[in-house]
From TrEMBL:
This is Uncharacterized protein. It holds the Pfam family Pkinase. Coiled coil: none annotated. The keyword Ion transport does not apply. It comes from Blepharisma stoltei. Keywords: ATP-binding, Kinase, Nucleotide-binding, Phosphoprotein, Serine/threonine-protein kinase, Transferase.
Length: 365
């Protein structure tokens, strides 16, 4: 669950990531109580990467289940990802969008950081796409529309997501999506600071302006959305090649090939999203919502989740992990961390990391 960590270790990831740029946002939050790993019981391993892992856990004394992301401080420091990790926590903590995964708790020990998020029992979109090969246009349209509402929220708050891919889209019990993993997101963009300049993202979904190192803005998210939609409809990203340099060359020089089974509306929408020149790319949210691909869709009803999802994951109970990769769920889930909080120098680099969401405080009263 959101377990594709920002890393150069390809063996531990489904797809390699490229490093993101550091920014300077470090926030301070009140610490209403001291949490430790002993407050949670590990149920299953959901995923892992070179930074750490994600567990399905329950909070002791409750019937609540969560996804707990456990990150190794030494690895974060070695790879200079501290600010990115704090940014990820801040985005999830502050976001108030039904299509973005919420942070419920966060805390730290001497060696590790813990982010406890809502558990999305439907698993990764990657899992389901791999299982199906490709989706129907109706199903793909539904996912794209909900992703667009997440983008609308993020962009309105000066955030570029920058890492859209099937691994970072999660399904809930009813089949609605939420996006997760904000380690590559760029915060603080504004009219006076409109662009970012770092080469980062996942190769299959990188926009041409990132490859050209020209500086980029929120339009890169719409390119990635086009690449994702193409993959959902065809079974593979639009410019995919096992040779990464060949893939980059394709992105910069080739026009995307439309498949015969794509509808005219889907083909037109894809061509407008996958424009090499960002100035020509469809990226105005109101224009996008009016595109014929979304004909008949009531965006207000969608925002309130009043549409039934075209696919509902099979989930039999709170600990059912059938929608996650058995490569991970078959492994022992235990966390071997020393839960003692100390004045180790690494603790001081993550000041006031403890967080308890308002709804969780209310639930525990």
């Amino acid at each position: 669950m959101g377990c594709c960590f920002s890393s150069d270790d390809d063996e531990t990831l489904k797809r390699p990531l490229l490093k993101a740029d550091p920014s300077s946002i470090i926030t301070h939050y009140p610490s209403p109580s001291q949490l430790t790993p002993e407050d949670f019981k590990a149920i299953k391993l959901l995923g892992k990467g070179s930074f750490g892992k994600v567990l399905l856990v329950t909070k002791k004394g409750t019937s609540n289940y969560y996804a707990m992301k456990i990150l190794k401080k030494k690895v974060i420091e070695k790879r200079k990802q501290r600010t990115h990790t704090l940014n990820e926590k801040k985005i999830m903590e502050k976001s108030n969008c039904p299509f973005i995964v919420q942070l419920k708790y966060s805390f730290q020990t001497k060696d590790k950081l813990y982010m406890v998020m809502e558990y999305m029992s439907g698993g990764e979109l990657f899992f389901h796409l791999k299982k199906c090969g490709r989706f129907t246009e109706e199903r793909a349209r539904f996912y794209v529309a909900e992703i667009l509402l997440a983008f609308e929220y993020l962009h309105s708050h000066g955030i570029i997501y920058r890492d859209l891919k099937p691994e970072n889209i999660l399904l809930d019990y009813d089949g609605h999506i939420k996006i997760t993993d904000f380690g590559l997101s760029k915060l603080g963009l504004s009219s006076s600071n409109p662009k970012a300049f770092t080469f980062c993202g996942t190769p299959e979904y990188l926009a041409p302006e990132i490859l050209k190192n020209q500086g980029h803005d929120k339009k890169v998210d719409f390119w990635s959305l086009g690449a994702l939609l193409y993959e959902m409809l065809s079974g593979a990203p639009p410019f995919y090649s096992k040779n990464r340099n060949e893939m980059y060359k394709n992105v910069l020089n080739k026009q995307v090939e439309m498949k015969p089974h794509f509808s005219n509306e889907a083909s037109d929408f894809l061509l407008k999203l996958l424009q090499i020149n960002p100035e020509n790319r469809l990226s105005d949210m109101e224009e996008i919502k009016k595109h014929p691909f979304f004909k008949g869709l009531d965006w207000d009803e969608l925002a309130h989740k009043n549409y039934d999802a075209p696919f509902k994951p099979r989930v039999s109970n709170s600990t059912d992990v059938r929608n996650f990769d058995p490569q991970f769920t078959s492994e022992p889930p235990e966390d071997s961390c020393d839960s003692t909080v100390s004045q180790d120098p690494l603790v001081n680099k993550y000041p006031d990391f403890t967080y308890i969401g308002h709804d969780e405080l209310y639930a525990e009263e």
